[in-house]
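Hey,

Quick one before I head out. I ran the complex with guanosine-5'-diphosphate overnight. Inputs first:
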Amino acid sequence: MGLFDYLKKKFSKNEDEKNIKPVEEQKVASIESPVENSDKSLSSSSVEGKEKIKDNTQEAYARGMKKARKGFMYRLKSLTSIFRKVNEEYFDELEEILIEADVGTELTFRIIDEAKQDAKVYNIDSPEEINKLVVEKMFEGYAQSGKSVSPDLNFVNNGPTVLLMVGVNGGGKTTTIAKLANRYSKAGKKVLLVAADTFRAGATEQLGVWANRIGVDILMGEDGCDPSSLCYDGVRKAVNEKFDLVIVDTAGRLQNKTNLMNELAKMRRVIGKIIPEAPHETFLVIDANTGQNGIDQAKVFKEATPLTGIVITKMDGTSKGGIILAIRDKLGVPVRFIGLGEGMNDLKEFDLDEYLYGLLLVEEDED
Ligand SMILES: Nc1nc2c(ncn2[C@@H]2O[C@H](COP(=O)(O)OP(=O)(O)O)[C@@H](O)[C@H]2O)c(=O)[nH]1
Ligand SMILES: [Mg+2]
């Protein structure tokens, strides 16, 4: 079964789920845990509750990826009405659409070259068929390079789990921390926030407002105080007071890689003095609108500190849905969560199938 058929089948509302093969058997869907798995981490145990979460997720992806869909799938479709057969010009247009969707030049050239070869070898000249082929190639690569990492946080059994959030200013770190804190506190976890972005004036207050609103604890220092000592105090407090999750906000200074590296290394060191395995998770937050520039930033962070996951924010605000592919291609770090809007519930676990459906197949909003 091809990608499109698989997705249509999986997401069609009235479909009897038993007819759908398990995800592992599907060509593209061989990565990351499906939505069903992710529900386990939340408190909802009833079938009805699970259905609700699933619907919310699907709806959030469909809504949040509208711009990306218009920037990609609608353009692909419009090509098919201009060309009746594929030719060199068709491939040029296709290449432009992929590059503008931020799939990345290298990956785009690779995909287009392969598609041209296939078109020749198998004698395919229908634009629709070539489009399908290209889309399948885009995501086959993702599926193959993706290890089966669960997007949900890996909680440790004993003591608090520590999550360090890094990324440039304005990317959405603080907002994402609030969304994660909200998610896990609702699921019954005792959450502590550490406002270790002490560099930017007002950053501490911003996190404080969120903590208050969500109803979780926060440890704050003075503006300009040493972020590492705040981390130390935060993790010690979390151990003593039996918190389940500590989320550490950090400053996003990128001007000087050595400084960034030193600062993050120091934070990790002091956290490790209290819990040797911590931080258990380090997420890099990337704004989907930053395109290739965002990928370059990500490389700097990856060199500065070990990363266990990426959070892509503001997917709702971009017509460039391909950044997910470029990230996987360039960084090899799994995307764990995706920001699909400003609301507290608009942060979802990254699910390739939901993402693809949102990018390729939702049709009701064609205006
Ligand atoms: N539309 C949209 N806006 C977001 C999303 N995530 C964050 N933002 C906005 O991005 C802006 C910067 O976020 P902030 O968390 O302060 O970034 P930080 O400097 O990295 O901590 C804020 O206005 C957020 O509301 C998202 O997924 N969608
Ligand atoms: Mg911030």
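Strands lie at 161-166, 191-196, 217-219, 245-250, 281-287, 309-313, 335-339, 347-349.

Talk tomorrow,
K.
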